[in-house]
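lol forgot to send this yesterday, sorry. struct tokens for the thing we talked abt
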């Protein structure tokens, strides 16, 4: 780039403060690896106390990120404000428009406006770098765009959200309910005050959209992703899954088919002997399948100040070295507009938990519906009531592979059985992971 790289940082929250600390503490190493001098010109945050805590005497402080951009002459803007639009989007568009490189961890913005930003970057001959947007400290974007670039990818599967993985892990270990464990996660800082994006699967969807675009050379398509969260999961499901030889994980899955791309996010039963089952707590794991490299596994901390800051610094060093890689691995004109497979066409196995009245003939009604739909049962669990209400009992079963539309038609038919007390809990099963 030049002998001196001037950097400005917008947003001094958990990640932003970590980036500033790393730039200061690791300056010597960073400059040697970048082969140039690094100068933190300015920081911006509306909270003055965050700026004061960092004690940056030689760095200008701003409360307005747009003013910081206009008043400084930076080579790189590090955007850590967050949000899919608003100030973050306006700031990045303005920076790219004036030829300033952008480094961001903002997966929501990229999932919704990535193509628009990439177009501005191409026109201005500058870069938008986003290693920190997926996987925190896991260099998964660099792996797809560089280390494994000679491969054709057929599938990406992963645990992309540490909050959900922590909640499911704690539910299993403590035998407590979802809301109780969520409150614990919030107290420990593993979950946001408003955790909707995490627990509803949206955060995982944003990350999957980015990786799917890079891996398959397609235009980013967040809207086409089927997304479910983990709020419906009860400890009973975790217990029954364990009895069947599975653990429950929130997965993001992108799979190339002969006609399109299958993209889905949902809680999933995975075999206990799978690498995915062994990754607990706030850790992330990503499995990538390439035609020559085979299966590659990436595990690490998917969020937090230092892991994410590490990814941001990696992008800064790449830009300082003169990297010219497009955000999504290819120039916009080379990205294909590939259709996303509809979830009703998915073929796979299923887990179902039903709460039914404790009376003869109920299971026969259920199996009769399955028989009419030509759905084969793989396993069945039928216990006495595990609660105080002895008038209802759980029936749990898993199926062999079946088309989703066919199976959901059967589930809807089951809902009409008067002896079924609550809506069925339906989860997908991934066997070959």
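and heres what i got for the seq, position by position
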């Amino acid at each position: 780039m030049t002998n001196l790289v001037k950097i400005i940082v917008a947003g001094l929250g958990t990640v932003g403060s970590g980036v500033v600390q790393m730039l200061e503490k690791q300056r010597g190493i960073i400059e040697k690896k970048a082969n140039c001098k690094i100068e933190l010109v300015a920081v911006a945050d509306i909270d003055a106390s965050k700026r004061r805590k960092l004690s940056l005497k030689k760095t200008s402080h701003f409360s307005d990120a747009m003013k910081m951009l206009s008043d400084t002459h930076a080579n790189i803007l590090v955007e850590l404000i967050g949000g899919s639009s608003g100030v973050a989007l306006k700031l990045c568009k303005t920076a790219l428009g004036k030829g300033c490189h952008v480094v961001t961890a903002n997966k929501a913005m990229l999932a919704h406006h990535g193509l628009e930003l990439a177009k501005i970057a191409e026109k201005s001959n500058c870069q938008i770098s986003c290693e920190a947007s997926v996987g925190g400290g896991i260099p998964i974007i660099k792996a797809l765009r560089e280390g494994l670039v000679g491969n054709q990818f057929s599938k990406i599967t992963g645990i992309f959200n540490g909050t959900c993985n922590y909640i499911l892990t704690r539910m299993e270990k403590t035998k407590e309910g979802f809301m109780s464990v969520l409150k614990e996660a919030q107290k420990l800082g593993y979950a946001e005050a408003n955790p909707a994006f995490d627990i509803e699967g949206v955060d995982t969807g944003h990350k999957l959209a980015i990786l799917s675009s890079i891996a398959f050379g397609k235009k980013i398509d967040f809207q086409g992703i089927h997304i479910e969260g983990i709020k419906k999961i009860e400890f009973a499901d975790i217990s029954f899954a364990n009895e069947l030889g599975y653990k429950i994980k929130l997965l993001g899955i992108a799979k190339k088919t002969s006609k399109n791309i299958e993209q889905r996010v949902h809680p999933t039963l995975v075999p206990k002997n799978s690498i995915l089952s062994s990754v607990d707590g706030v850790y992330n794991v990503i499995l990538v399948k390439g035609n020559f490299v085979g299966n590659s596994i990436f595990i690490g901390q998917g969020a937090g100040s230092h892991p994410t800051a590490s990814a941001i610094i990696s992008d800064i060093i790449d830009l300082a070295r003169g990297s010219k890689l497009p955000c999504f691995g290819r120039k916009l004109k080379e990205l294909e507009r590939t259709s996303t497979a509809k979830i009703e066409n998915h073929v796979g196995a299923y887990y179902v938990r039903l709460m039914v009245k404790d009376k003869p003939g109920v299971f026969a009604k259920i199996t009769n519906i399955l028989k009419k739909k030509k759905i084969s049962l793989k396993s069945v669990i039928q216990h006495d009531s595990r609660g105080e209400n002895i008038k209802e009992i759980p029936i749990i079963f898993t199926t062999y592979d079946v088309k989703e539309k066919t199976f959901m038609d059967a589930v809807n038919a089951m809902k009409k059985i008067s002896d079924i007390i609550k809506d069925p809990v339906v989860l997908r099963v991934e066997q070959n992971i």
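Residues 107-124 form the longest helix (18 residues). anyway ping me if u want another try
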